[in-house]
């Protein structure tokens, strides 16, 4: 879309397209060979043990002799699209013994200001 050989400057082309100029000038850096090897090993470990997070993966990699920190493992996991599988808290499920209170305003037609007031005590 944006070409440097066009008659219009790059800034004007980006403005006409409604784009930022940052992607025009950005050139992605290739991934380091050491990071590729670590990413390959993280992928293998994740396939074996999908419930491991960045801390446990870091410990396993350190046990194999790879000098790596948790934040770097986390960054590589995010780049690869890997997340740990674990049971999330069930915060929206209601307790069966808790009563469900009726909504008392369902049949009421509210036609004027200050006819109904509400308070939330949560």
What does this structure look like?
The longest helix has 16 residues, at 33-48. With 122 residues, the protein is mainly α. The radius of gyration is 27 Å and the shape is flat. Helix content is 40%, strand content 0%. The model has no long low-confidence stretch (mean pLDDT 91). The protein contains five helices and no strands. Among the domains are: 1-29, no CATH class; 31-86, Arc Repressor Mutant, subunit A, CATH 1.10.10.
Short description:
This protein is mainly alpha-helical and 122 residues long. The chain has five helices and no strands. The longest helix has 16 residues, at 33-48.
Q: Features of this protein?
A:
122 residues, mainly alpha, Arc Repressor Mutant, subunit A, 40% helix
């Amino acid at each position: 879309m944006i070409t440097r050989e066009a008659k219009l400057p790059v800034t004007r082309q980006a403005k006409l397209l409604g784009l930022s100029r940052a992607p025009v000038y950005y050139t992605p850096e290739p991934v380091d060979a050491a990071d590729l090897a670590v990413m390959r090993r993280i992928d293998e470990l994740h396939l074996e043990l999908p419930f491991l997070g960045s801390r446990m993966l870091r410990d396993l990699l350190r046990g194999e002799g790879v000098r790596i920190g948790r934040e770097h493992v986390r960054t590589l996991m995010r780049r690869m699209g890997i997340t740990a599988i674990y049971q999330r808290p069930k915060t929206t499920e209601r307790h069966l013994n808790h009563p469900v209170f009726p909504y008392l305003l369902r049949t009421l037609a509210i036609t004027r200001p200050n006819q109904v007031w509400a308070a939330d005590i949560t």
